[in-house]
């Protein structure tokens, strides 16, 4: 089957979140698929295989790679992932780094966490400085466990995801991720009415949401601001 967008994900907990977010962002006429992996090494091995396979069966497919930053240097991580893509295929790819981990997105929307666990007072903590900029927390997962002791990423991400707001999240990496999807959707819509010049594989030149570096996030064949 041909897909317009394929999401290559580090792990299933991210897929749990995207299963809730993507129907709100991607119109039904655009076909997409999420493929989760068993961690960073599995994702790195999977990228060239998937790019080559889809290039044969669905050459117009665009890819969005989602990877936790964790303790990595953001610029180097994007560069390394970009190099894997460039060595594998000329497919259009957008790379998005979650700063520092998925739980940063949850801490950026404590109202969603409060609804998921029926903790009404939790949303009031959003104005604390560390929750106003959750991407700066080095261990968002541990911070979330302090607030919700039973939290476990593998299953509880599915519990929080339905309540996440597309517009109110304090995580800048979440906001950048959402905008990236909108840009790709816009590109697909535009390409159906006009011919896009494929000159260099670069979709997006937005800044890293945390370190504000000027390095490219992605590889693709045309530029979207």
UniProtKB/TrEMBL annotation:
Concerning InterPro entries, the annotation shows: DUF4276 (IPR025455)
Its recorded name reads: DUF4276 domain-containing protein
